[in-house]
């Protein structure tokens, strides 16, 4: 006979799968003791660059009970975004996560459905959904919930599906059965460290965010420092190098989320097309895309930096 904890845990995991999530892991909502010194050191070394928001809400980042009062469980979820088709070779490159509709919208809807399901099936459960937009350490929770280990490139990795997926959470005030961590399977491999075009992975498991191509092309609002000229490997929005070279991503399978499919024009665009892109084309191709974050002028700045 299943007790309620087991029953509720199974219900949630089955529904998460039905909603299209790759996997679901659950951990106890408590202070992230191991992460605290790591985050503090990273911030003290200014590895967040201009991402000042990383310095805010230090306590909330480490303690989910400060985000959701009375919370008992963190339900971590993965959603695959690995595309079936990729951009052609003669193109400036976009990170694969940005091919389709902005994941915030897609995942938020799924998370709301999951929370409503929990409330309908289990009763009076309070909680909040998080998709990378609040001070939650997604990767730390996913690792704690047994969904993978944090690789040397600081992304979550799993033996079954690699690392091309989004991470999201529901923090709820319901006691559930908790999963256990998996072991690290990076071994002696340094593929990601060796391949990083800007040497942003300063040591295994530590990424200097202020040197990362994703930071320069998305977060940085000023001009890109000239010392990085010629080192962007044609990336105009984000960068996938450390994931592309990771042996575990041999096991990535294409997603089955229609909203993540790229705009038909996107995959065919050449470098020449990108150089000549108009605001009208930008609006059409990136109508609901995460690329809107950098705005038309930001993308133009990135393209100009690549071709100069």
Automatic annotation (TrEMBL):
Binding site for [4Fe-4S] cluster 2: 196, 212, 239, 242
Main localization, broad class: cytoplasm
Active site: 132 (proton donor)
Residues that span the membrane, as ranges: none
Record's cofactor remark: Binds 2 [4Fe-4S] clusters per monomer.
Keyword Iron-sulfur: yes
InterPro entries: 4Fe4S_Fe-S-bd, 4Fe4S_Fe_S_CS, QueG, QueG_DUF1730
Positions of tRNA binding: 221
PROSITE patterns for the chain: 4FE4S_FER_1, 4FE4S_FER_2
Residues the entry annotates as binding cob(II)alamin: 61, 132, 156, 167, 214, 239-240
E.C. number: 1.17.99.6
Function (record text): Catalyzes the conversion of epoxyqueuosine (oQ) to queuosine (Q), which is a hypermodified base found in the wobble positions of tRNA(Asp), tRNA(Asn), tRNA(His) and tRNA(Tyr).
Assembly and interaction partners: Monomer.
The protein's name in its UniProt record: Epoxyqueuosine reductase
Protein's organism: Pseudotamlana haliotis
């Amino acid at each position: 006979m299943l007790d309620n904890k087991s029953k509720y845990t199974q219900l949630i995991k089955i529904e998460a799968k039905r909603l299209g999530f790759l996997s679901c892991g659950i951990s106890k909502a408590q202070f992230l003791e191991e992460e605290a010194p790591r985050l503090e050191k990273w911030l003290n070394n200014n590895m967040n660059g201009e991402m000042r928001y990383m310095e805010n809400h230090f306590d909330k980042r480490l303690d989910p009970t400060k985000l959701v009062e009375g919370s008992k469980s963190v339900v971590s979820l993965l959603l695959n975004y690995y595309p079936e088709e990729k951009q052609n070779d003669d193109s400036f490159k976009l990170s694969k996560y940005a091919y389709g509709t902005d994941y915030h919208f897609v995942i938020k809807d799924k998370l709301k459905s999951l929370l409503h399901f929990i409330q309908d099936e289990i009763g009076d459960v309070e909680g909040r959904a998080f998709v990378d937009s609040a001070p939650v350490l997604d990767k730390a929770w996913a690792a704690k919930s047994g969904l993978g280990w944090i690789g040397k490139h600081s992304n979550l990795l799993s033996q079954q599906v690699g690392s091309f997926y989004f991470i999201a959470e529901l923090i709820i005030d319901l006691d559930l059965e908790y999963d256990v961590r998996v072991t690290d399977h990076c071994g002696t491999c340094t593929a990601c460290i060796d391949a990083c075009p800007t040497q942003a992975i300063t040591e295994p498991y530590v990424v200097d965010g202020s040197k990362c191509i994703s930071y320069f092309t998305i977060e940085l609002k000023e001009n890109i420092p000239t010392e990085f000229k010629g080192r962007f490997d044609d990336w105009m929005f984000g960068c996938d190098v450390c994931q592309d070279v990771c042996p575990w991503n041999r096991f990535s399978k294409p997603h089955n989320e229609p909203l993540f499919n790229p705009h038909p024009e996107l995959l065919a665009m050449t470098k020449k097309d990108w150089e000549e892109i108009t605001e009208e084309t930008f609006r059409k191709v990136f109508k609901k895309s995460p690329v809107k974050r950098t705005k038309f002028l930001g993308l133009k700045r990135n393209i100009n930096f690549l071709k100069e």
